[in-house]
């Protein structure tokens, strides 16, 4: 899937010449936590969010340093913090440059960028112009409905083959210690795991195969340090 399948196209924006008060009111009235900052022609120039407004003189939350940390801070850094705490215009406190994606960025790439950059939202741009925004909540949209069942129900043999194929593709199961047998849609997992998380992953792998009606966990746990085997209950 790509960003254009989940992004919000009707984006609430603000201009850089607007005031901080206007930005705060716009976020509160629309129950959003960030605003792309655009020029009149729609070009993205920055982003202002709640995090940009946490250290404010009005809130008495300006950054305070101990005397020795104050000696280490450069005058330029302190001046920058002063601007953020006292600036009245959006252009003075907004974050720039902004991490962006295109409408055709894959969801995986977008998530990687969010995690790496530690951001909650990514403006979507085409040739520098804002065309949408994708936030963490947008990733919930495809999860609102369970996956649709497609085609005819699989036979027991086909279910077992599908589970085996999925397990073989996963690094945590490539040791071949986990086996699945199927009878009338009921999957029995046999074999052993070296980590309890492998048990949960094997169950998830099986329950995602169409036609599975129940899963019986018969996996034993082997302590990799001492070789102790604990049989399934």
Number of domains: 2
According to CATH, what is the topology of the largest domain? CBS-domain
Query: How many strand segments?
Result: 10
N- and C-termini, Cα separation? 41 Å
Low-confidence stretches: none
Give the CATH level 1 class of the largest domain: Alpha Beta
Structural class: alpha/beta
Word description of this protein:
By secondary structure, this protein is α/β, with parallel strands linked by helices. The protein is 30% helix and 21% strand. It has seven helices and ten strands. The protein has helices at residues 20-30, 67-72, 75-86, 90-93, 107-117, 156-168, 196-207, and strands at 14-15, 34-38, 44-49, 121-126, 129-135, 178-183, 186-193, 214-217, 220-222, 229-230.
Observed structural traits:
7 helices, Histidine-containing Protein, Chain: A, CBS-domain, 10 strands, 3-stranded mixed sheet, 233 residues, alpha/beta, single chain, 5-stranded mixed sheet
Briefly, what is this?
This protein has seven helices and ten strands. With 233 residues, it is an alpha/beta fold. The chain has two domains: 3-143, CBS-domain, CATH 3.10.580.10; 156-230, Histidine-containing Protein, Chain: A (2-Layer Sandwich).
Write the layout of secondary structure elements.
Layout: E1 14-15, H1 20-30, E2 34-38, E3 44-49, H2 67-72, H3 75-86, H4 90-93, H5 107-117, E4 121-126, E5 129-135, H6 156-168, E6 178-183, E7 186-193, H7 196-207, E8 214-217, E9 220-222, E10 229-230
Parallel strand pairs: 1-2, 7-8, 7-9
Antiparallel strand pairs: 2-3, 4-5, 6-7, 9-10
């Amino acid at each position: 899937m790509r960003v254009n399948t989940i992004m919000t196209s009707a984006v609430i924006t603000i201009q850089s010449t607007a005031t901080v008060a206007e930005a705060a009111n716009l976020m509160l009235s629309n129950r959003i936590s960030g605003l792309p900052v655009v020029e009149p022609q729609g070009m993205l120039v920055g982003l202002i969010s709640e995090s940009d407004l946490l250290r404010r003189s009005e809130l008495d939350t300006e950054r305070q340093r101990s005397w020795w940390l104050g000696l280490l801070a450069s005058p330029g850094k302190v001046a920058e913090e002063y601007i953020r705490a006292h600036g009245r215009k959006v252009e003075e406190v907004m974050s720039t440059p902004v991490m962006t994606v295109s409408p055709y960025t894959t969801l995986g790439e977008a998530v990687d960028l969010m995690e790496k950059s530690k951001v909650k939202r990514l403006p979507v741009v085409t040739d520098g112009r804002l065309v949408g925004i994708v936030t963490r909540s947008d990733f919930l949209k495809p999860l609102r409905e369970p996956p649709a069942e497609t085609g005819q129900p699989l036979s027991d043999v086909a279910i077992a083959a599908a589970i085996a194929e999925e397990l073989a593709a996963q690094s945590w199961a490539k040791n071949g210690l986990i086996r699945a047998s199927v009878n009338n849609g009921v999957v029995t997992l046999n074999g052993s795991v070296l980590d309890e998380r492998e048990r949960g992953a094997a169950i998830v792998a099986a329950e995602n195969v169409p036609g599975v009606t129940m899963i019986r966990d018969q996996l034993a746990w082997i302590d990799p340090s001492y070789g102790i085997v604990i049989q399934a209950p």
